Amino acid sequence: MIVKPPPELSSQFHEQAMRRERPVPFIAEAPACWLASFDPLKRLCKGKWEAFHFFGKQELRNCPELRGLTPEELMLIEWDARNAGPGCVEHHRRFDNLADAGPGSALVVPRSSLPADVEEFIAERGIPCLAERRFPLC
Ligand SMILES: [Zn+2]
Fold this sequence. Notes:
By secondary structure, the chain is α+β, with helices and mostly antiparallel strands. The chain has 6 helices and 4 strands, in the order H-E-E-E-H-H-E-H-H-H. Zinc ion binds at residues 33, 35-36, 45, 87-88, 90-91.
């Protein structure tokens, strides 16, 4: 069962995502989303910006460390504002692997690039193993 977030929680999530500082704010003089500098094919941002989840619903639901939580508890973790970042449609899809363009095209974010509050989220929510799988140490 999937529990939808109450509207105030999803709007808080979105606002926090858009306020987040981006590692490379501009590429080729155009505003770059948080994910843009991690694109191995250097694709430029495309489409409107939206809030992405550093850790998605499915990942959290399948995470062994979180087994036994209620759907409400999982929803609160998923929509924790520290789990939010600003991504254009293009990079958000690639980050979530929905638009893979072949070998070597996956958008991979190294662990060392995660913002401090995302690390805090990982520690507080007890998901270090999930973080290791999602964000390589290289
Ligand atoms: Zn982008």
